Queue: 4 jobs
Job 1
Amino acid sequence: MTAQRPETAETIIIGAGSAECVIARRLVDAGRPVTLIEAGSDDANPHIDHLSTLGMLWHSDQDWDYYTTPQPGAAGRRIHLPRGRVMGGSHALNAGIWVRGDRWDYDTWSHELGCEGWSWEEVLPVFRKIENYDGGASGTRGGEGPLDVVVDFPRNPLMEDLVEACRETGLPLNPDYNSGTVDGVSRMQLTIRDGHRFNTWRAYLKPIVGDPRLSILTDVQVRRILFEGRRAVGVEVEGADGVRELSAERVVLAAGALNSPEILLRSGVGPGEELREVGIEPVHDLPGVGRNLHDHLLSPVVYTTEGAPVPAGEVTVAEVHFFDRSDPGLPAPDTQPIFFSVPMYAENAQPPQEPVAENGFTLQGGLVRPHSRGQVRLTGPAPDDPIGIDLGALQDQRDVDALVASVRQCRAIGRAEALSAWAPRELYPGPDVADEDLEDYVRGSVVTYHHQVGTCRMGRDEEAVVDPSTFAVYGTDGLFVADASIIPQVPTGNTNAPSVMIGERAASALVDSP
């Protein structure tokens, strides 16, 4: 992509991920000039097209390749956090799974967490506006939006048997988990077109590249936001031609749950005492920046098959998931196991006394209602000083108990009669690990589900960073945040769909503002 390089802009958008591409497109459609800045390059890597090879993107040039600090709750391990550094952002690296979440999530945001206007009934029209759902438009689903959401794609026979295995163990079939209630086992809905990845970059923004109101700078990293007093007036960036400044009437920060707080902190917006400790003079003491970090977590149950070999998925390696409650008294599901048609061994934790099998499948136990919270902090004042990412993984015993329950449930599904033709044999955690001894296994194998949120959360209390109506950063002028970092409590399920919805809502607010 040929970068255009204006020195001034009406609106600068930082990042080119799920929400950012939506915001840029909607502003351009409204006749508003936009300069979008992306630290990565165009999405030319062929692995981006194919959901089945997403693992090849990890540790690549398109991955920020973050790791957490050592996590005491995860056996002291540092957990890899892949994040997209490319046009399309993390929607260029993810599994393309479209999950809105449960009605309860949004009603909780609105009624209990100070985010009035974000109830299920209020966000539902926005989700419908986004979707081009091949299952058909309805009162809950959209059929004319720019983003393809596909349920009718070639299915792996193993995955179809796993649906039956779930039903055999007592889970109900949920034909559309995006209707407001997620409970039960479902066939996944994917953001694909012609079997290939279709993200917001490709759906919203790429079709209007060349519009004179849209300027895109790639391979340009934002070092900090520039202020006059507390008013954002531009950004300092670094690219092939060195460090320079770009002025703007307003700045929209949408770099994700790790990079958005980082840029605010480097710009002097955040907890004042912590900023001074690393040599940054505060512009605005805003204590919630970087805090409230949380994520969904997974722990794998891996099988090889001694019957039929597992066929490769035509479109993806993940086709089925289910939502359930580790405690029947919970108001919404807190677990989301996800099934893969390949063996996925936990990093640095290979199965004891077993060869690593290439043929097999994985049932990932999944935690989607974490109580643990972490923080993003700076380790120094320089732009190349790494950020410290403490996920707080499994520091709350309730999270451990829920994830153990999910792994135990996955093991039961693996023993279901519906899978008899495959003759699965558990490799990991392995037959020598009893259900009552799973806690150590879970702590030693847990990985991210790539759903970090909350580090610039919206709300009305003293720890809130962003106004839930305007997306403005409290205590500043001309500065907005609109991405997964503003989510106050992670929704039940994958976070890409909520991020796209946030982009649409932020765009509407920005179009209407001066």
Note: The longest strand covers residues 242-253.
Job 2
Amino acid sequence: MTSGRIPVVGRGSFTSRYRWGGRAIVLRIRLLASLLLAPLLVGCFASSGGGSSDDASGGGRLRVGLAFPPAENLSPYGADATILTRLGVTEGLTSLDANGAAAPALAASWRQEGARTWVFTLREATFQDGTAVTPAAVAASLTHATEAEPAPAALAGVGLTAKAAGDTDVRITTDDPDSVLPLRLSSPSLAVLSAKAYGADDRVDLVGTATGPFELTKVMGSTAATLDRYDDYWGGRAQAPGIDVKFIPDGTARTSALRTGQIDLAEAVPVAQAASLDQGIRKATATTRTTSLLLNSASGPFEAAALRAAARQAVDTSVLAEDVYEGYADAGAGIYGPAVAWAEGRRTAPLGRAEAAKAEGTSITLATYDNRPELPEVAQVLKQQLEKAGFDVTVELREYSRLESDALDGKFDALVLARNTLVDTGDPVSVLASDYTCDGGYNLAQLCDKDVDRAVAKAEDAVDTAERQDAAMAAEAEILGTDAVVPLVHQRIITGVGTSVRGALLDPYERTLVGLGTRR
């Protein structure tokens, strides 16, 4: 492995995750090779990469195994943004509290001025390069985000202008009224960075330019990264002196590294590996993540609604929840799962479903990725169920970073995707707009339906919280009625937490993992 500073990211240089996508995945079965891979990866982890191994107070550096290597060169604007928030590197003006409401972060408070303008009052803070977090710096950072191509998911369909307003305030004006702007600004893809992050050619450098309690100092390609504590963090001094990160896509290897004491925290422990860990170190957390079967409704066999209906009827979600996920999931009920507590009581039946056609001899390609280790098995079970209904199914499997660009080019007939419905903004309507409308930035199903667009637009216009939730569920009924998405399971994420670790952040929104109090 070679080491060096984090690569500089050009805003237009990566294919982000916001179009529909490719599917070429060579199915890889979990065999002895997975077990042989574990010691190789574990051995590669040993070097701390910088900083002392222990803090003066006796706390050691945290060793973290993550499932997803950077897919976009750690761009702050796309899918990799969540890696940065989970490790405590970046933060925005707001955050999400346990109830999914906007909470203070770099902004200590905010108020609304008219229908389209909000004023955010900043707390006293500094960037990791030592410069002050000023209204001008925040406004410039948000402006860069609005100019990114593709746009961050949190800003899909949203136009905003940010300007400094005095010594402590930032005034943000949206093109249209936006009642959930404080929630939107909690998105990992709207992190605030210092002026040094932005080069003359629109490049973004994350080394020493964020505001979180840990500073990213070194990245070794897609295999490892080093973070050191930022001692002048506004929220106080983190208890861990630093973090050594290893990206370990193979779930068996990741679990083995935890079990053998080579790492302290393991993200996304496979269900099949959970029993190999002592009960005290496997932590299951209900999340807002739903695993779904997305059917390409714009081209190929599933352009026909009747064949989408046939695929939906062929799927038995209870088998997936009970057998594949071994009870660490609930059978799919809708786009929102049980962790979204308000959804169940408001759910209505899908609207306008087509009558299923016979699928005999219809060939389809079903794609998924192996970073979430249950997905290949889900794909195999779906293959059996769909073939029983008459489809001829080819499964393709890749690691996510190698799948993404093809997936974004719309090359698959069907895709199994695990999607946290509230990770981008915390707003239940935003995920519907980005994933299922004609102009949606992450419309993997290529769905373009006037009734769906109308229902989502109505939900976007709702201001009152209860009214917005009701409208979101009405839009969900329209979306499910198209059969472009078949909810499979609502997942409980298993995190491996070593016995010496205290203060790991087990977040249902999957935005955080390591914080000020996380230590060993």
Note: The CA atoms of residues 229 and 241 lie 5 Å apart.
Job 3
Amino acid sequence: MVRLGFVIGFVAVIGIFLSGLAAWRAHDQELAIDRIALSRAIDVHASLVQERLIQRELLARVASGLFRSPSAMQANMLHPLRASIYAFETDFVLAAWVARLESGEFPQARDALANAGFPNPQIRSFDDASRDLSSLDKPIDVIMDVEPQNAQTSAFPGRSLDQHPILGPMFARAMQTKTSVVSDPLNLMDRDGPIGLVIATPVFQENSGTAAGFITFSYKLASLMLTNDELSLFSVVLKDPRNPALELVADDSGDVTSRPGQTADPAPPVFRTVTFGGRDWSLGYYAKTNASHRAQKLAAVVAAIGLALTSIICGLFGYVAYNNLRLSREIQVRIGFERRLTAVIDELNHRVKNILAVIQSIVTRTLRHGSDIEVARELLIGRIHAMSNVVSLLSESQWQGVKLRGLFEARAIPHVDRIAIHGPDITVSARAAQSLSLLFFELASHSDEGLSLVGKHPHIVVNWEVEGEGEEALFRFRWEEFNTSAATRREDSDFGIILLDRVAPEALGGISKRYFTEVSYVYELAAPIDTVVDLTERDRTMQISTPLKPGA
């Protein structure tokens, strides 16, 4: 069992180690896969954003290139471009023609706006406040046409943008760089409008390096960032160029708000840079799920499965090993049982042969030639009863000997009521019990010949004792019949004389003598206690008869 427990414990340790290794590998692989998937998705998203920005910048350049001999005072410059700018499908919020006007061109511009049907043809500030135009000594940027035209956008023409805090500097950069320029994030349409960007491209007159005006397109920031994908692995933010500590983030409805930059939500962001309008824009990507937590959960599941499999394997191994051990023990028990059964059969054969030999001798001696058939029949029955009695007693004790007092029973010993028994309660061996049982029967069967001289039946006193100790111990037996004499006692038969004088003493390894006194008949027997008790025979019989217990 100790070895089996050691083996099962070793298997359990190996299973736990392999489960931990598998969990660790699953954790690392899941983490690596999530990181690779997130990185690829971010790269794809950044590429798509860059493509959208390039497309919108290309639209601005194409639109500016379609102008031929632009006139600053015209208020319908975008009408010929309507089909072209809508063909790009760039979902712009507002396209505008912003003319660069000198102070002498203001009256013509007001007339053009009025003729185009715009509700307020006056040249005014970007916030619709009146503006003192007489003091101007440099050109200003005025909205002359918008697309699409509706009730809200029709109010924009006539506004000057050179004083706008965001658009004014944008136009100045566009004039300086002579290419498309993007503004900082601002509210489109009105103060509460969506946050977006405005890209402006200068339009130059033919054979002149002076810009006649600008083509502008306004876009919502959310559409440029592609933030409305609910199934994406990340959320997108834009680093605010006006304040690097702030981030612009769009919700599911496309509304963009500003918030402080975060370093871990739930993991540090990954940044990608895109180019738009000659500027670099930094996009931040936050993972929507914590890859580390997912990897830990997967590792826990793998570890739990591994431990469960280890428990099942250990249980099955223990069950099989236990059954094999139990079967091996049962086989050993069966082999031992068969060996003991063989020994018992051999012992039984030996005892049966001895009993049959004794019975054969009894029958032969009892039914000798010339004997009285009635007397012989009575003696034969009595002797066989004596043998049967001792065999029954031995069977009840599993052939481990019988009590000496048990041999004196009415069914085996005649006139047992006249016998007074004295002696220690010792157990004699099977061989000694057979001899003593016949001996007692012979002595008792010859003590009933009529009445004694005093008119009484003989009185019998049986006494035995053990003298000495150890190997020198002797068993002494004395049979004395009082109130009898040679004249009244029935004469011993030939079989009885042989049994009393030779068979019984030789079987016990001792000596005997019989004689008459003046008032009694005496039979004495002395033998070593070892042959009477015969401990070797009892131990051997006890070993044979002891039941075997599985697992003992």
Note: The first helix runs from residue 2 to 65.
Job 4
Amino acid sequence: MDELQPTEALRGRSEPEAEPEPQSVNRFISVPFADWDSNTMSTEIEIFIEESGLSDYSDYIRRGAYLAQDKNAFPRNRPRPDGLKLREDKDERKYLDLEYSSRPIDRFNQPWRLYALVVCCSLGAAVQGWDETAINGAQIFYQKALGIEGRVGLIGLVNSAPYLCCAISCWLNYPLNKVLGRRGVIFLTCIISSVTCLGQAFPRTWYQLFIARLLLGLGIGPKSATIPIYAAECAPANIRGALVMMWQMWTAFGLMCGYISGVVLRNVNSGNEGTCDQDRSSPDHLLSSYCSLNWRLMLASPMVLPLFVVAYIYTMPESPRFLLRKARNGDKKKYEEAFNALCSLRYTKLQAARDMFLIHHLLKGEERIMAQQQPFRELFSIGRNRRALGAAVITMFFQQFCGVNVMAYYSSSVLVDNADFSQYKALLASMGFGIINFLFAIPAIWTIDTFGRRNLLLSTFPFMALFQGFLAIGFAFDGTTGTVLIMLGMYLFSIAYSPGEGPVPFVYSAECLPLYNRDFGMGIVTSINWFFNFFLAITWPKFLAAFGASGAFAWYAGWCVAGWWIILLFLPETKDLTLEQLDEVFEISTREHARHGMDQLVWWVRRWILKQKGWRKPVLIQSKIDEGYEIGGEEKYARRPIGEMIEDS
């Protein structure tokens, strides 16, 4: 008889494990060993120690594995039968208590190395925001300098060029990450951003500027998909939502920097007397006054920030999940590298071992499912996945069609051409919009996990529509009345947008899809977001010329109204839900959820408008534990009849 392989000897059998049932696919990934008995758990721990070669850390791995299975694996009042216990000399109890503390602030008590990584990711996000809004002030000047003033089609094409490239380059995210890793992709894309921003300072014609901006999209697209993933894979679960949300908040910071650079650089040799077609015989023609230094410096200004990320990124640990995937593909040295990376991002080796054991088995489950199924096709063929993908697309679509990037890219030129603002006042007004956008994104760090994703959108979209209406009316008036309405509309819209439709789309999209096809789904929704970003940027100049500023902003006010209804009917809430609970939510039919949304609206009108007390809020899913009983000792979820409105006695 042939000698058994080590893993088979430990299991005592060589038969392949049973394939998971289709309906339990996501449960297998979300809690891969929740139902294992002590013998199975002990066997699997020994297998992992042998496979990984981490025998020097076997004590941490054994205890961490039990902690991954049950957070209460080490009770205070009684010893474990196997003798395993927490080490007081390493303060393990102290740091575990911080993780599960009832005080929200305790969750943010994390090692400095984790926050250094967050700073690096935040700088990368700020790079993107600055890349996007550098064009806002520059377009006031480059139109005349390059001889395309009034040619709205060319202006829209130049401004939208990076986002056309982003819609395509997002699809490079998966192969680039597979080859270069998370840090490698961030390093490469920041190099591209810096070089192409510098390239935007030297064009002599509009099509040279178009090419430079098109290539800039290679630096924006993959980075926009990689940095949130990198942060999520390195962060502990209890603050993952807040750290992933940092992407949007610091993108808003970068947007603000772009507006500020427009104000600061506006008077640097504007050269509005001529165009680049003049004085071609001059040896310094390229940077002559006719070619305008101010807009060139505005477009080049984002080039410095990515260089800090480039210098900084390789001082950070690689994503432990990426390293473990490489280890499972044959590079056994990556096991220890992954463990060391987790040790630098957690307070104790016990926490690092727990997270490593969990990630290892999550990857194991994903590999089994990937071998049995076709994740890309099943995004559309399985109802749960199709509804989740549709909900993510809704959030991404309305992030663009609420009209925010009209202001991000065109506010300065619109104010100059349609509201008789001076160049300086237009740039100042745009800078105010950017500052407000950043400041009011900060509260979302708390509200996105407390108030909820769907609730944030439903409570902010009506105000976004109202304030877009202010803009539409303001542009129809002359003088002080029009100016006041325009400024109110811009700033109040920014206040409403920043905590809602700003951060929600990327957070929502990252969590609603099941793990085994999340990469494919994120590729689709991110590409859709950038495509509509491109669509809005390229069509706005012609749209503005055809309908005027009032009609154009009224159009986007209408989309905000439509967005509110679509979110009410078709967007489930995902706050505080585990993967298993998300499966329950998205398995509910679209028709059933739409009816629940209408029942919520009826309840809200009766309760808060008509002041009719005694109506119970409709509940989509209710825990049976809340009703006073359990099934098999495990929490189960049952649907309460949709639209149930029971009068309180």
Note: The radius of gyration is 27 Å.
